[in-house]
């Protein structure tokens, strides 16, 4: 049976793994391996008001297993959620991380992921064994419904330019490329869909 529900703290392990699958660049920024990155995301998932928080996350469950996740944020709140995530990460960060984050501080501070009038899809991720079955599409439909319910006329997201699968899906569903920006060796594409 397929159900969509709000996520709970008890989903933390699976949700943080899925979140890392969607933003493995974070490991490169923080110079963490996947295990340490996932642990940090798990910690932030359990805290309120970070971009990873369970309170902003929905999950698709198939026969009792979490198959995919969607995390969203009002565009106007994203900077606050990012700051809260950064502050809650401090105890995790060593010299190597701080040095690398400072090295990329310019593009990090300049980057505007979402505008105030957009409902932002912070993370979309589907477990590899459940991909290609319409779950990603279902979660994007949910994001658009949440946007409308909250009075927004646009959904937006950012995707790694090399993630062809995700970009194709977003294009098919009406997301339009706005501009690209660089962070480390990655190029990211900002996309917006009018609702
Ligand atoms: C991108 C991602 C979320 C897509 O999730 P998904 O559940 O596979 O998405 P869907 O199944 O809705 O769509 C994928 C494809 O399957 C097709 N499809 C949808 N429902 C289908 C069905 N019932 N039967 C067969 N194919 C179907 C879609 O048309 C789409 O086709 P395309 O490859 O030609 O574009 C998933 O690949 C993922 O989690 N990737 C890793 C994390 C990631 O990159 N996240 C995005 C970061 S921005």
TrEMBL record:
Q: Which Gene3D superfamilies match?
A: 3.40.630.30
Q: Which InterPro entries would you find in this protein's record?
A: Acyl_CoA_acyltransferase, GNAT_dom, NAT_camello-type
Q: Which molecular-function annotations from GO does this UniProt entry contain?
A: N-acetyltransferase activity
Pfam families, alphabetized: Acetyltransf_1 (PF00583)
The alphabetical list of record keywords is: Transferase
The record places domain N-acetyltransferase at 2-195
Stored PANTHER family: GNAT FAMILY N-ACETYLTRANSFERASE, LD18367P
Output this protein's name.
GNAT family N-acetyltransferase
- Recorded source organism is Paenibacillus agilis
